[in-house]
Amino acid sequence: MEQLMQYIWQHRLWRTDDMVTNDGRQVRVLDPGLLNTDAGPDFFNAKVEIDGQTWVGNIEMHVRASDWSRHGHDSDSAYDSVILHVVDKDDAPVYRTNGERIPQLVLQVSPLFNMSYDQLVNSHHELPCAATIATVPRITITEWIERLAFERLHGKVQRVRDMLELYHGSWEEVCYVTVARNLGFGINNEAFERLARRTPLRLLHKHSDSLLQVEALLFGQAGLLDPMAAGADEYYRHLCSEYAFLANKFSLRAMESEAWKMFRIRPQNFPYRRIAMLAHYIEGGFSLMSKILDASGEKELRKLFEVELTGYWSNHFSFGKPSERPTLALSNKSIDIVLINTVAPLYYAYGEITGNYALTDKAVSLLESLRPEKNSIVTSFAMAGIECESALTSQALIELRRSYCDARKCIYCKIGHRLLSDSAHR
After folding, report:
1. Is the dihedral of CA 220, 224, 226, 232 positive or negative?
2. Cβ atoms of 159 and 348 closer than 8 Å
3. Residue 244: exposure state from Cβ atoms within 10 A (0-12, 13-18, ≥19)
4. pTM of the predicted model, to two decimals?
5. Which residues sit opposite 72 in a β-bridge?
6. Which is nearest to 3 in space by CA: 29, 42, 58, 38?
7. With pLDDT > 90 as the criterion, what percentage of the chain qualifies?
8. How far apart are CA 258 and CA 185, in angstroms?
9. Which candidate, 339, 334, 331, places its Cα nearest to that of 365?
């Protein structure tokens, strides 16, 4: 509630004709001040006029006026600079440390504002504003979506930056972990990242001249090999034998097989072929980052991920029975997702860090050229009237849904703010 009061004060969403202190003095806010997110009063350097006299100082807010003494402000000189105490319920007078009484104001807002706020934050709909978003000006939505697209991209770029520091500036190592993570396609992201971190490139490079050993290391470290498995085929037995030797040699410890989610997943989405794809990139030495940077455009980038597996994985989705319809390791839709979540952030991060801003532009252009993702989030916004024309927009909508809608942070969303602002002034 106090956070909502701060929001109302910061954005001047009160009823101006009701700005009167509890002792009857007229209040006019000249400047609401600067919101303070640290210790101390809620707003710094505010300017208010009380009965014609201008005061400059700080503003403190509480749900109940009695919270002032409950929080110890009456004995804390840091709050002596408060020129106005703003509350929702006036249940006690408040004083400075020297005994001076501080002007107190009950914050009044439009009933329509309270109704709109309640409808948003307590909505059972996956999109709280689905019924009213059509009233928001298109320019507001467009500008907000553009900002969210970069908010999401920068979050991924920061992950790349953090990994680059962890791996002492090795872009290939960062690329390896990033690609591995995104081969999980959401449901197995964490498991794939754990696998990559647990099986570093320096170990894999020692055996990159043998695809069987690379596959044995990856499948073994993934916890997907069981030497006691009954009826295992010859390839599987070879993997188990190789991993047993390598695990003993390098003191390796496998993941728990339970880390992988396979329930209600189509066979082509099982992690086995994607682990085999990772092995494909490592065979002969991992250099995918260099190839990504050298690619001239989307067509060349797509070719990097249009991998046709050979040998055992050319006709298997998992260990055991062969598949009747072998396919590429990744579908076109899956390649789109890899380009969105792997290539674009790597381009942008590399461009920022090296000062090659043509690459940051290239990252954005790539997202603008790719088809939008097809998922329940994009569909829900389409039903509310927000169409999605590119991956840049679909990424923004995912950020909006996960960071704002699901968390009901409507007061921090530009769409929610516009709706609440309109209701406050009606």
Report:
1. negative
2. no
3. middle
4. 0.87
5. none
6. 42
7. 84
8. 17
9. 339
